[in-house]
Design brief:
CATH architecture of the largest domain: Sandwich
Order of helices and strands: HHHHEEEEEEEEEH
Structural class: alpha+beta
CATH topology of the largest domain: Jelly Rolls
Number of strands: 9
Helix content: 10-25%
Radius of gyration: 17 Å
CATH class of the largest domain: Mainly Beta
Strand content: 25-35%
Largest sheet: 6 strands, antiparallel
Number of domains: 2
Distance between the termini: 35 Å
Shape: globular
Length: 210
C-alpha cells in the first residue's frame, strides 16, 4: 500500500520558510546567525531538497519569533462544526510516515484529532516530547510502541493508551509492517498546538553536523 496518496494536499515547508523570512527582510545568512543553523542547511530546506525535523523548525521559529505551527498552515478560520471529506483532509509527509489532520486545525475547541501512518522503523525522533493536555492513542493496524516516562506500552490493532501529555513520551513502529494510529489531543493550553510535536523525524547525521 502506498501511504502517500495521490490526492494528498502536501504542505511545502520550504516555500513557507522563504516567505516568512522575506516578510521580515532577512537574508539566509541573517536567519542563520539568529537560528544557529548553517546558511547552507537553510538554503537546502527552502529549495525543498531536505525535510527539516521539528527540532530544526523550532530553532527557526524561535529566530523568527513565530509559533512552529506557522510553517504548516496559514491562519485558518475556526469553526464550531467541522466536516472534512477524506479526499480534502490536509496531509503532511514526514520521514517514514504521513500525518493527516482530522479537523483540529480549524475547530474552535481545544481538541486535535489526527492520524499517523508509519512505515516500519518510523519513530517520533531522537528526543522524547511533552506538551500540555491529555493524549489518547488508538492503534488501527500494525504495532506502535509508546514509551511514557520510561514505561513501555506495545499497542496492537484495537489497543488504546491514554495519559497526561505533560509526561515525557516517545513512540516508534517496532514491526515490519505499516502501522496506523488515531490520536486525539485534548485540554491543552490555548497557545499550544500539540499535534505539531508529533510531526517529527529522526535527526540524521547531516543535521547533527549542522
Amino acid at each position: 500500500m502506498d501511504i502517500y496518496q495521490h490526492d494528498a494536499k502536501s504542505v511545502n515547508v520550504g516555500k513557507r520558510l522563504q516567505k516568512l523570512r522575506e516578510e521580515r527582510n532577512l537574508s539566509i545568512r541573517g536567519l542563520a546567525r539568529l537560528s544557529g543553523l548553517s546558511a547552507n542547511a537553510l538554503s537546502v530546506i527552502e529549495r525543498g531538497k531536505s525535510s527539516p525535523s521539528v527540532s530544526t523548525l523550532y530553532k527557526i521559529a524561535a529566530a523568527l519569533e513565530i509559533p512552529v505551527t506557522t510553517f504548516f498552515q496559514e491562519t485558518p478560520d475556526v469553526k464550531d462544526i467541522v466536516f472534512i471529506k477524506s479526499s480534502e483532509r490536509n496531509r503532511i509527509p514526514f520521514h517514514r510516515g504521513l500525518w493527516e489532520d482530522l479537523g483540529g486545525e480549524v475547530f474552535s475547541g481545544n481538541v486535535e484529532p489526527f492520524m499517523l501512518t508509519l512505515e516500519a522503523g518510523a519513530s517520533s525522533g531522537r528526543f522524547p516530547m511533552g506538551h500540555s493536555g491529555h493524549e489518547f492513542v488508538f492503534c488501527l493496524r500494525g504495532q506502535l510502541e509508546y514509551v511514557v516516562e520510561q514505561e513501555s506500552h506495545l499497542l496492537e490493532a484495537g489497543d488504546s493508551l491514554l495519559f497526561a501529555a505533560t509526561l515525557e513520551h516517545e513512540w516508534h513502529n517496532p514491526g515490519d509492517k505499516v502501522a496506523n494510529a488515531l490520536f486525539v489531543l485534548t485540554s491543552y493550553q490555548d497557545d499550544d498546538s500539540p499535534s505539531q510535536h508529533h510531526l517529527i523525524s529522526k535527526i540524521d547525521e547531516k543535521e547533527q553536523k549542522d
